[in-house]
Specification:
Chain A: Pfam families: TRAPP. Chain A: Belongs to the TRAPP small subunits family. BET3 subfamily. The complex is a heterodimer of chains A (184) and B (184). Chain A has 184 residues and is α+β, with helices and mostly antiparallel strands. Chain A is 51% helix and 17% strand. In chain B, helix 2 crosses helix 5. Classes of the chains: A alpha+beta (184), B alpha+beta (184). The interface between A and B is large, with 38 and 36 residues.
Chain lengths: 184, 184
């Protein structure tokens, strides 16, 4: 199943129009900069980034389903794999991995070895509590919630904070099955 | 927060020399439109929205110019206005929008030029939620940023070209630049 998703991811990547990732990195930097100027604490900026990501996620999911042509997920495990292999590839052009699955498949960690958001970025000591790419958490939360899958998404490791990789923990809260069967 | 390994000084890290680092255009558009929405909500006056976007564009354009000249190993500085504008229309525009733009010289005033983009690719980028003029301020800011970085002072204003669907950018160099050119 994993190979199928990798293939889907790659074919979706070839279908989409692309732009230079540097302008993206710099634009995102400006976004974070604006938020830092508007809000006092790193915590508030984190929340704002998550909110922004949420709004993006609820709009992005339709396009994702249309372009990637994935089928309905049979389990949360499928959701995780699709997120890593298809969505990350299609939008960011990076290969992500799902790992550290919880025993009952209710949570996983998404690992991004290469993250286009953080190129050229250095986090000063003043903002050591900032999760710079928190927008990704919001995007995941927003898009899954539109599919009636309620999740808790938190950033766990970020290269800007000195860790050696980027990790996001996605934990399932609930699936509203009645409505989800009508979608897709 | 414990660190896993000592962080390399950001200035020592290699700039990724791969010319093909790309990201999905749609993802960029989502981020950009969300940022425009955020700025609109946080700007008391609507006229300030264009200014804010222009400022953001300047900041990005400034850095992009430095990054690109470094990557392309351009060792010689451009001294003439026409040369730097040709760099923008050919090299820079192609990197960002995929196609080169055309440079025109306006007959009525000395030192005034016009950048006319190809309608198809550019409108995709500027035709976002709030319509042409607002997002074109961003692109005008990008051009200004590049010119600032190259030490040319100019005023950039977007204006409709022959028909309303294409927006061009009118560039008016400041008097000291024109004096500089006439001296050489």
């Amino acid at each position: 199943m994993s190979k199928l998703y990798t293939k889907l991811g790659e074919s979706a990547w070839t279908k989409v129009d692309k732009i230079n990732s540097e302008i993206f990195t710099l634009t995102y930097g400006e976004v974070v900069n604006s938020l830092i100027q508007d809000y006092e604490t790193s915590e508030e900026v984190n929340v704002q980034l998550d909110e922004m990501g949420y709004s993006i996620g609820i709009r992005m999911i339709d396009e994702f389903l249309a372009i990637s042509e994935v089928e309905q997920c049979k389990s949360f495990r499928d959701t995780g794999e699709i997120l890593a292999k298809v969505a990350c590839k299609m939008y960011l052009g990076v290969d992500a991995v799902c790992k550290y699955w919880a025993e009952d498949d209710s949570a996983f960690t998404l690992e991004l070895k290469k993250n286009p958001f953080v190129d050229f970025v250095e986090l000063p000591q003043k903002y050591k509590d900032l999760w710079y790419c928190n927008i990704i958490c919001g995007i995941i939360r927003g898009s899954l919630e539109t599919l009636q899958i309620s999740v808790d998404v938190k950033y766990q490791k970020c290269v800007l904070r000195g860790h050696n990789t980027n990790e996001i923990r996605v934990a399932l809260k609930s699936i509203n099955k009645e409505n989800s069967s009508k979608k897709n | 927060m414990s660190k896993n390994k000592p962080q390399k000084n950001i200035l020592d890290r290699p700039i990724n020399r791969s010319k093909n680092n790309q990201i999905s255009l749609n993802f960029y558009t989502f981020l950009f439109s969300q940022y425009v929405q955020y700025t609109r909500e946080h700007t008391p006056k609507t006229s300030d929205l264009g200014k804010k976007l222009s400022k953001v564009g300047e900041s990005i354009g400034y850095r992009l110019f430095e990054l690109n000249t470094y990557k392309d190993k351009i060792r010689k500085r451009e001294l003439k206005p026409t040369k730097i504008l040709l760099y923008i229309t050919d090299n820079f525009w192609k990197k960002i929008f995929g196609k080169a733009a055309t440079l025109h010289r306006t007959e009525d005033e000395r030192g005034q030029y016009m950048i006319v983009p190809e309608s198809s690719t550019d409108n995709q980028f500027t035709e976002l939620v709030f319509g042409h003029l607002v997002c074109s301020e961003f692109v005008a800011g990008l051009i200004k940023g590049v010119l600032n970085s190259a030490e040319f002072n100019a005023e950039i204003s977007p204006a409709p070209y022959t028909d309303d669907s294409i927006l061009c950018f009118i560039i008016k160099f400041q008097q000291d630049i024109l004096n500089r050119e006439s001296q050489n």
